[in-house]
Amino acid sequence: MAQAYGENLKQAMDTLRAHKMRSALTVFGVVLGVSVIMLVAALITGFDQQIQENIKQFGADTAFISKWDQGFHGGDRPLEERQRKPLTLEDANALIEGCPALKNVTTFLQTGWMQPHTVRTKFGEVSAVDFRGVQPNFGQVYANAATLAGRFISEGDDLHREKVVMLGENVAPVLFPNGEAVGKDVMIDGTDFLVVGVVEKPKGGFGMGDEDRRVLIPFSTFRKIYPSADEINMRVQAYPNMLDQAVDQATEVLRRRRNVSYNGKLNFSIRTAAQEVEEFHNIMMMVYVATIVLSGIGLLIGGVGVMNIMLVSVTERTREIGVRKAVGARRSDITWQFLLEAMTLTAAGGVIALLLVNGLVLLIRMTLQWRGSVPVWAAAAGIIVSVSVGLIPRGVAGSFRDGERSGVVSDRVMNETQPPRRIGRSIGAVLAGMLAGIILTIGTDVVLHVIGVFPPWGQSMVGFDGPLLLATAYRTIYGVAGCYIIARLAPDRPMQHALVGGFVGLVVSIVGAVVTWNKGPAFGPHWYPLALVVLAMPQAWAGGKLRVLQLRPRADA
After folding, report:
1. What is each CA distance from 447 to 325, 442, 454, 482, 528, in whole angstroms?
2. Statement to judge: residues 413 and 432 lie in one domain
3. Are residues 292 and 244 part of one domain?
4. Domain end: 420, 440, 461, which one?
5. Pair 119, 246 in one domain
6. Which of 179, 213, 184 is nearest to 197 (CA)?
């Protein structure tokens, strides 16, 4: 058996070498789809690690409080947000007194982003700095504000409104390239300040623009020099393992102080590092979805291309197949020859994609000082998917017209030539069916969110087993309908086309399950993505079977 497979593999390799251009064009779609999956997985995995590390640099058990709603915003702030009254030092004092779970509260002042600040000496100048007025406990709450040289701003500095400053690690060498910065004078917006310390650059930055441009002065000094700056922000630090209680207590205190009713909309926001990481995951999920769609299209093109190329290959070699059957070759021998050709072709595409992506990632790491890499699951999934794409044309090797139902190449077909199938119609059929299923699914999701069957977008789906069962049911129905459309529009071989659509759906479901696994309650319990993976191919078979049953009376007639 091993010898037979080895002989088949050798013949498959000889055929691929004899048709280099055809093989290269066929493998292109596979390389495209698999490369997109691997590259985006590598980039997002690297960014995910980096963002989480950067967020944790703010300090464990801390939360950020602002009058503005936090998170991603497009365009101008709503009028309601702009009209909110600013936070005050009295609010910070009330939090310390009224929140037993809070260990520390620090406040800082900044001017509007439209007001630039410049720090200069006779040796150099730095603009676009992160300029803040901070309290003495700023370095205790913020884990990324460690003192590298000199000392931090003291209680006396703040009390007496001293004109002292701490410079970021990347700012000091520009202003004092020839020596120590501590103890020397700098000019900030025309005012002289004495440098008392240098802040250590936070760990975990990435990219060529990773610079520490912080410039910190005492809170009271900042308020004196910039009296119009009234936008106070706070970061609170809870006792270990008491952050949730601290957030609840802080919310209640600020509700009372800012006259927010129990069911009213908060006119402030409190955000923890875990919430920031979760929001980043939600944003990245949109990128993953777009990636899955793009890679699915690439794999679809590659799979249908392989199917049609194999069909042409079989058509060209009908006499060879006839001779082989005449001398005793079994149907399985012929089938395995063409199957190994297809799988070798697509596996080569997966290996090429893996090498290309790893080379590109290595180049990015060397250029941008970035620590990303292709995840093991992405590399394994890419190779498995690429090899699996070669399984799509399995029935082509021994199935033409009459032989399509029997699985045996008939003598009549051996002596016929058959025109190549229309690749465009095959791809169009699969795309049409998939698009129909996607539109129906998204439309139903939106309706169920609007009428309240599902919670608002981004909120936890844990505990919604009933609605998720409903979602699984209508996704299955729409999947069957989509695969039926694929089979209905296919130029021939409806079941094979439906299974191609099911395979693309399987890839999408697997990738979706991997990237959402343990990414938070917004993605529901684990059984939900697993159910979508398990049901992908059965619903494709059901859709194709409906079309086959519909055509059977005509065939019998």
Report:
1. 58, 9, 9, 20, 20
2. no
3. no
4. 420
5. yes
6. 184
- CA distance to 250, 436, 437, 477, 543, per residue, from 433 (Å): 52, 5, 6, 13, 10
Give tens-digit pLDDT for 133-148: 999 999 888 877 888 8
CA dihedral 358, 363, 368, 370 (to 10 degrees): 20
Judge if 398 and 432 occupy the same domain: no
- Three-state DSSP at 181 gives coil
Final residue before a domain boundary, out of 240, 256, 272: 272
Identify whether residues 94 and 200 lie together within a single domain: yes
Mean per-residue pLDDT, 539-550: 90
Residues 39 and 364: their CA atoms lie apart, in Å, by 11
Domain count of the chain?
A: 3
pLDDT at 422 over 70: no
Yes or no: say if 277 and 504 are a contact pair by the CB < 8 Å rule. no
- Whose CA is closest to 28, among 482, 346, 443? 346
Average pLDDT over residues 181-197: 93
Same domain, 277 and 180: no
pLDDT tens, residue by residue, 48-88? 777 777 766 666 688 899 988 876 565 677 788 888 888 98
Max CA-CA distance within the chain?
103
323: Cα separation from own chain's centroid: 53
Give the domain range for residue 218: 62-272
Residue in the structure block whose two tokens are 């931090």: 152
Chain position carrying tokens 């030092």: 89
User: Nearest Cα to 253, choosing from 121, 63, 479, 97?
Assistant: 97
The answer to whether residues 456 and 527 belong to one domain is yes
Closest CA to 225 of 136, 316, 110: 110
Question: How far is CA 143 from its chain centroid?
Answer: 28
Please state, in angstroms and rounded to a whole number, the distance separating the CA atoms of residues 221 and 192. Answer: 12
pTM, two decimals, is: 0.57
pLDDT at 455 over 90: no
264 and 125 together in one domain: yes
